[in-house]
Write a structure and sequence with these properties.
single chain, 142 residues, mainly alpha, 6 helices, 71% helix
């Protein structure tokens, strides 16, 4: 829809301009949609209160690998609070023995958090005197 708007607003005569315009418009849309997805994912993670919220969140993804990778990356960029971690822990403790989608959702989300904690500890133990790409100062962490 946005592409059609730009295409109708700015008429382009040549094939070269059409290809060039399409390429840059698609990059803008891809970049915008990735940022919007990250924001949406972080909001949904912070608003999880029940197991049904976990199930709805995990249904956003096509594969488990994609889901885990995105959740861990979001946690690296925007660290979860202690209260969020407590909520996830309580949900996991309540539903980890279930053999349905609720048990899968609780376990998968908890395993993503454990993986994030492990990666965060590895970053914390590195003796790099500068800020890393996440924006965490690693030297003065202890």
């Amino acid at each position: 829809m946005l592409y059609r708007f730009f295409r109708n607003t700015y008429p382009l005569e040549t094939t070269y301009n059409n290809i060039l315009f399409s390429k840059y418009t698609n990059r803008f849309i891809e970049s915008y949609s990735k940022q919007a997805f990250k924001y949406t994912l972080r909001n949904k993670l912070s608003r999880i209160k029940t197991i049904d919220d976990c199930v709805k969140l995990l249904q956003m993804f096509e594969t488990t690998d994609e889901m885990c990778e995105n959740i861990i990356n979001i946690f690296h960029k925007f660290n979860p609070s202690e209260n969020e971690l407590q909520k996830f822990s309580l949900i996991y403790q309540e539903y980890h023995n279930n053999i349905d989608n609720k048990g899968f959702a609780a376990s998968t989300l908890w395993f993503c958090i454990i993986q994030w904690i492990n990666e965060f500890q590895k970053l914390k133990n590195c003796a790099i005197p500068t800020l890393n790409s996440v924006g965490i100062e690693l030297v003065n962490f202890n």
